[in-house]
Amino acid sequence: MPITMPSSTAAHHELTSHEVVLRLGADPHRGLTDQKAAERLARFGPNSLPVARTAGLAVRIVRQFHHPLIYVLIAAGAVTAALGEYVDSAVIFGVVAINALVGFIQESKAEAALEGLRSMVRTQAKVIRDGRRRTVLSDELVPGDLVLLEAGDKVPADLRIIRATELWVDESALTGESTPTVKDDGVLPGAISVADRRNMAYSGTLVTTGSGAGLVVGTGAETELGEIHRLVGAAETLDTPLTKKLAEFSKILTVGILGLAALTFGVGLLRGQDAVETFTAAIALAVGAIPEGLPAAVTITLAIGVARMARRRAVIRRLPAVETLGGTTVICTDKTGTLTENQMTVTGVWTPEARFEVTGLGYAPEGSVHDVHDNAAAIDSHPALRWSLLGGAACNDAALTEHEGRWDVVGDPTEGAMLVAAAKAGLGPGQVAQVLPRRATIPFSSERQYMATLHGDATSPVSSGQVVLVKGAVERVLSLCAYQLDGKGVAAPVDRAAVLAAAAELAGQGLRVLATAMRPVGGTNEFGPTDFDERLLSDRMVLTGLQAMVDPPRAAAAAAVAACHTAGIAVKMITGDHAATATAIAGRVGLLDPHEPVEGMVLTGADLAALSSEELPEAVERASVFARVSPEQKLRLVEALQARGHVVAMTGDGVNDAPALRQAGIGVAMGLGGTEVAKDAADMVLTDDDFATVEAAVEEGRGVFDNLTKFIAWTLPTNIGEGLVIFAAIVFGAALPILPTQILWINMTTAVALGLMLAFEPKEAGIMARPPRAPDQPLLTRALMVRILLVSSLLVAGSWWLFHWELAAGASLPEARTAALNLFVLVEAVYLFSCRSLTRSVWRIGFFSNRWLIVGVLAQLVGQLAITYVPAMNTIFDTAPISGDVWLRILMIALAAGLVVAVDKRLRRSRTLGNQHPGVETIGP
Ligand code: ATP
């Protein structure tokens, strides 16, 4: 049927559901057909926002010049031109232009990379098409699609709500209103604001509780979000704490450099030197002292870090996370799905009457239910077993799918496992739905810890018989029960002690245990579908049984936990599951030492609630397992750890995990099993939900921080050296050993050819064998500053001596300067190798282990030969060819400088390492 587009201009919220259905050519029960969906996709295009560039090209280019250090360069270029030094001026402006170009390319690349990463975490939507529930990428939604909403979902398009159960949506992204709004399917009059349209759910907003269904009325740019996007563009900043600190630093540096340049100029004038010459010298100083490559190097290093992390399945959503990750001191992780596979299989059912075993692993409904004597259990002769399995399967929102013989779950794996268990006993989903048609639902939530449903009961002796089914955490379900179902199918008083003992025994084996309960509701029709709510689940429920399921620990979990421990990072399990299950799994992945008493190591939500705010931090720091924890308590846990000075990485997947994820230094969301709300709040998303990936990301984070430190340690001595050599020349009234244009040559070419290659430096061995960097540790430790000053002094002394030696030996000024220039570059090249590791000698890490660096050094050498021997370059840069014996002297000095640094490293290593065990190396004193 063609889409009957609106005959009237009424907005969707003004129409009844039925009118909307007609207008959209939709089906409120079976959804669109696949064919129709495909046609509409071709016609309306994908449901995604057009990529909006934050700023126009021109603005982005101009922005590259907006930097205090660049202002100094521009001023220097202008003054040089005014003085008639056109070649110098051209070189300075050339540098400014190159700098801007590199910055621009860099920024664009980093943005594109982040954009690409963002698309790795794509929103999914649950739809009904062709009468079947399915999960599709939200890009594929089309007008008329029937979308299902559940707590934790991000609304994938603009929807007209046609069904809603306690549906609350957080619309703060759109309206700024921070409290969620309730949604229903009513009709609303005329012109009302977006915030008041209770029967609409808008793309980009988040479902906080309840469930519902809606018809897509707008996709992509045609949504309210698209409208806003068009207006403001999505500005994503590339700033991180470090880049901000560096920006501060460069402002201070600029003032300092200008001060020193002014001082140089003053001293020169006082000494009666030529004003123009002194001014040139002051400019040289200013230009030399500016670390031009620094901003680009930081962005590039971070960007490479982001890419490396993505390769290891950790997608960074906010750039600062790359830095913070390296300093993580505690990782708080979920159990289910992160430390374990989240591949649930019910292996046993306990009923008040007997125990049963369930065979077969995975989601294929192949296997059987039998009693402890291996006799197949006929459900008809075991009423409690029958009701437990029925309860598990009917009070259930999951579905099983089969594709080429592979069975899978759509929905919650815990529920999937219960569907499979019932099917193995002959209660397939179709049959269950027939016997117990569902009338109303109280959905599962982590706070509630159970799910309840109301069903018509086809087996009931009374024609209007209904039954309430509940499944959930044992203690919670038990608290609703007064009875248990005995072997004859009669409700007897519940034996709480026996139920709890059975549950504890199963949980002690690491099994996840859920209780099931039922309650027939007589013919009086006690509840109507609309007034079925929590208060009505009185304490008169009848316990039918316990279902125990295995969820094996992930293969890599134990090794990753061990790696974290070696790296001095504490790992804590935070789970909603039973303490005994949590303790058993914690033991298996190495979170608890089997030889140590568990006293104080395992805390439950109730224990936490009983602790005062003063007691909490210490208790939390000590414990490793937190069981039956509610999502709100996660926030308290993060804050307690932060109060102890920890940098906390916290994993989460649910809607209510969002506050804790935001509070944590690194919020980590699950890419596969996580809700959109959690992903939105997170700094990092794991595309495989695996704990080992968090550990890998921390490792990469440490590598990034190392590489940044290395670059800074490498680049600063050159700038300081250049500044000081000029300053010394003026103070002593000597000729300048290097000219401004030559300094620019050094700074620009070496930053690109040499320094940047450090960003490709592989992680050092033993990077996860040292303790985490202290949260307040400055970028440059005292030891590093000493090294920087040492290398700066070597540069000043070496170039000063060489320049004057050459002059004394009869060389011309250009020749002596060429020698000094080459010396600077060569010392930098030698020092570059040293900077590849801040503690180890280059021989230990392998001379050729970073090929890029070798390529860079060779490129730099070609450049040096060019500036020394190519006549045109000689003219531009005031250089002159030098002979072999000069090269020899340069080489000797450079190697000597390298030797001094090596000795310094060696000395420091033996001092800092002291009695620590071999292989553990620290940066700094
Ligand atoms: P983790 O926090 O490690 O992911 P979890 O999945 O056990 O652990 P929650 O999802 O908060 O944490 O579940 C808490 C408890 O609620 C579970 O231990 C289980 O007893 C019960 N439960 C879990 N899923 C369901 C469900 N779909 N229906 C009913 N009860 C459930």
UniProtKB/TrEMBL annotation:
InterPro entries: ATPase_P-typ_cation-transptr_C, ATPase_P-typ_cation-transptr_N, ATPase_P-typ_cyto_dom_N, ATPase_P-typ_P_site, ATPase_P-typ_TM_dom_sf, ATPase_P-typ_transduc_dom_A_sf, ATPase_P-type_domA, Cation_transp_ATPase_P-type. It comes from Nocardia mangyaensis. One of its GO terms (biological process) is sodium ion export across plasma membrane. The chain crosses the membrane at residues 252-270, 282-307, 711-736, 742-760, 780-803, 819-839, 851-874, 886-903. It is found in: Cell membrane. Residues 11-85 form the Cation-transporting P-type ATPase N-terminal domain. One of its GO terms (cellular component) is plasma membrane. Belongs to the cation transport ATPase (P-type) (TC 3.A.3) family. Type IIA subfamily. Pfam families: Cation_ATPase (PF13246), Cation_ATPase_C (PF00689), Cation_ATPase_N (PF00690), E1-E2_ATPase (PF00122), Hydrolase_3 (PF08282). GO terms for molecular function: ATP binding; ATP hydrolysis activity; P-type sodium:potassium-exchanging transporter activity. Keywords: ATP-binding, Cell membrane, Magnesium, Membrane, Nucleotide-binding, Phosphoprotein, Translocase, Transmembrane, Transmembrane helix. It is a multi-pass membrane protein. Its main location: membrane. It catalyses: ATP + H2O = ADP + phosphate + H(+). It comes from the Bacteria. This is Carbonate dehydratase.
